[in-house]
Specification:
The chain has helices spanning 3-10, 17-31, 39-46, 52-63, 75-87, 90-100, 113-133, 137-144, 151-162, 178-187, 189-202, 243-251, 267-270, 274-281, 412-426, 431-448; strands at residues 36-38, 72-74, 111-112, 175-176, 227-229, 260-266, 287-293, 298-303, 320-325, 329-332, 342-344, 353-356, 365-368, 374-376, 395-406. The protein contains 16 helices and 15 strands. Helix 1 packs across helix 2, helix 4 packs across helix 7 (113-133) and helix 7 (113-133) crosses helix 9 (151-162). The longest helix is centred in the N-terminal third of the chain and has 21 residues, at 113-133. Strands 5, 6, 7, 8, 9, 10, 14 and 15 form an 8-stranded mixed β-sheet that branches. It has a 3-stranded antiparallel β-sheet with strand order 11-12-13, with no helix packed on it. It is 41% helix and 15% strand. The protein is an alpha+beta fold and 452 residues long.
């Protein structure tokens, strides 16, 4: 690092020692080794990796707007933008939002909702640009298998980020006051995570030690995107969801399941058969069901328990239903009942099919076993909060359906232990037999262990 960068970093106490090195190098490259940076040089430096709208919002913070606009900004102001967005307090992030949107922070000043929505869209768009230009294997597999990153889906993601600011997802918004914005910033986890990833990449924090590239660095691993398992062996995968949809759904999963999606079933690849689908998704742990109907609506649900033939409801209150198109919405559990997931087949006295929420044959998602390819989504569902019908029409036809396991696949050993415990609960005398079975499994494992 040159002397200029060292002098700049020494002036800023907001940054950690490690951050000082990288942020100063980025500032030096964008400012052409000057102690102040010009707006046009910074926009040119960030170039195609940033949505032009976000570039304008950020320069409003750095250089001011209107009559207060300045020609250059110093290193401290440049560093503040990074620090406040990555680890700032809610109040600091609120002030940044006001400044980016061309306003001085004041509790009496309201922000137009439309402007806030466009701000969220610009962050979502920049994140997707980062994903698309990433060299990480995680991102490349999704993209190479045909998962799109369309402008309309990015726009829907931005709208979903903004729409919670008023508390009512369905009512029209006009203006947002400071208290609404403060609460929104405090509770909107996905917006914060996307912002952090955007600024880490724009400021070069992902660079390797010793790398003083004069251009923006290759983006870091886009951690909001899960790793995929099973896609790489599919020669021609018929993707129908967008990268924005994956980010949206994944962000609402319990954190321990967000790192990986495991491909289990696709109606285009495995055929339109309820039995085939059921066979491929059983004993796979928590999973995501995604459906596209013939009207282009995309929706589904997160099931927390193994899918299994059963006359009983299973699952936990971490379950939720969601929509991806035409809008992105999440419907979490109400705890009013525990009707989270149900699957049955070949029974005469109970409905045969797959169900999430509501009542038998009448719920959030009902897929009858016969005929496969049709389904229903009820007008109301007391199992999930804020629920609205997921499909365009109550009765829908399926264009595409797929199921993904999330997180690591449950281990066989764990399944055997749970089975043994179940047997002991109903038959204590079976302990001796299970002990013999356990010793047999152990011996088999020793025989299969590879030589050292």
């Amino acid at each position: 690092m040159g002397n200029t960068s060292k002098k700049l970093a020494a002036k800023c106490t907001l940054l950690t020692k490690e951050e000082q090195k990288y942020v100063a190098a980025t500032f030096r490259a964008a400012s052409k080794n000057s102690e102040r940076i010009r707006e046009e040089d910074l926009i040119k430096f960030w170039g195609p990796q940033i949505d032009p709208r976000l570039a304008q919002y950020l320069t409003n913070f750095l250089f001011g707007s209107g009559q207060q606009k300045t020609a250059t900004c110093d290193f401290n102001r440049f560093a503040e933008l990074y620090v406040f967005n990555v680890r700032g307090t809610v109040e600091e992030r609120l002030a940044v939002t006001y400044n980016c949107l061309g306003k001085d922070f004041n509790e009496d000043v309201e922000l137009p909702y439309q402007l806030l929505k466009e701000f969220c869209e610009s962050i979502a768009s920049t994140y997707i640009k980062i994903v698309k230009s990433s060299t990480s294997k995680r991102a490349r597999i999704w993209i190479d298998k045909g998962f799109r990153a369309s402008a309309s889906c990015v726009q829907a993601l931005g709208e979903a980020l903004a729409t919670t600011v008023g508390g009512d997802l369905e009512s029209p918004h006009h203006h947002c006051n400071a208290q609404q914005l403060l609460k929104w910033l405090e509770t909107n986890i996905l917006l914060k995570q996307l912002s952090e990833l955007v600024f880490v990449n724009l400021y070069g924090i992902n660079s390797r030690s010793g790398d003083e590239s004069p251009t923006p660095l290759p983006p870091a691993t886009p951690t909001m995107l899960p790793a995929s398992e099973g896609l790489e062996v599919m020669p021609d995968y018929p993707a129908f969801i967008d990268l924005s949809h994956i980010v949206w759904i994944n962000s609402h999963l319990p954190q321990k399941f967000q790192h990986k999606w495991r491909f289990l079933f696709s109606s285009h690849i495995h055929g339109e058969s309820f039995s085939t689908m059921a066979g491929r998704i059983q004993e796979q742990g928590p999973s995501i069901l995604i459906i596209e109907d013939t009207n282009g609506f995309i929706f589904g649900g997160f099931a927390t328990a193994d899918w299994a033939w059963s006359p009983n409801w299973t699952g936990t209150d971490d379950s939720f239903l969601f929509t991806c198109a035409p809008r992105m919405r999440i419907y979490p559990a109400t705890n009013y009942n525990d009707h989270y997931q149900y699957m049955n087949h070949h029974t005469k006295t109970l409905p045969n099919g797959l169900l999430m929420g509501g009542q038998l044959e009448f719920g959030g998602i009902w897929l009858p076993a016969e005929p496969f390819g049709e389904g229903n989504s009820a007008e109301s569902c007391s199992t999930f909060r804020g629920y609205k019908r997921l499909s365009k029409e109550p009765h829908f036809r399926i264009r595409s359906i797929e199921v993904w396991g999330v997180g690591d696949k449950p281990s066989l050993e764990k399944d055997e232990d749970e089975r043994d415990a179940s047997i002991l609960d109903t038959n204590p005398d079976a302990k001796a037999i299970l002990d013999m079975a356990g010793r047999a499994r152990h011996s088999e494992g020793l025989r299969e262990e590879p030589p050292l």
